[in-house]
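REQUEST FORM: STRUCTURE PREDICTION
Request ID: SP-0412
Submitted by: Lab K.M.
Chain count: 1
Length (residues): 177
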Amino acid sequence: MTTTPIPAPLQTTAPSGDLRIPSLLLAAEAVLAHLHPRAPLRVERVALGETPGVTYALAPDPQALALNRALREEVALVGLARSAMARLLGLSADAGKGPACRDPRALLTAALTDPEELEVLDAQLAVLEARARALLRRSWAEVEVVAAGLRDHGELDAREVAHRVACAQGIRGTLLN
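STATUS: Completed
RESULT:
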């Protein structure tokens, strides 16, 4: 008498499959923050667990944002990273919004004093999101490596994010040269 082994049911989704999209969204914000070395964009940690989000060492100073246009745009661009990544992944832009996100519209509204700039706020946000999408396309390898680290460990500190970004850049540099 022969016995036929009964195959175990295959898992159609990997355990980390549920974490893929959230990890990519968080990694996008962390990588863009890492690529813009400004004080309010200094990443302290990135977490995927119970309280997912990117924690920064400092909150953006409204007076500094009002006085420094480049800083204001970089902080808003990083704030748009999740929605830009969501669009790149074919999701709605609202999928990139979370409770721990810095709201770029609120940051820009608080920092802008000129009424003419406030009139074109929507256009400025659209341009900044397009720039964020372009940066994320260029930094896709870095985002994937940081996202993989988030799925594996659940949380990364600033040093670990920097290490993963440097590794991805080094691998890309080696392969392309």
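NOTES: The beta strands are 43-47, 53-56, 155-157.
Reviewed by: T.R.
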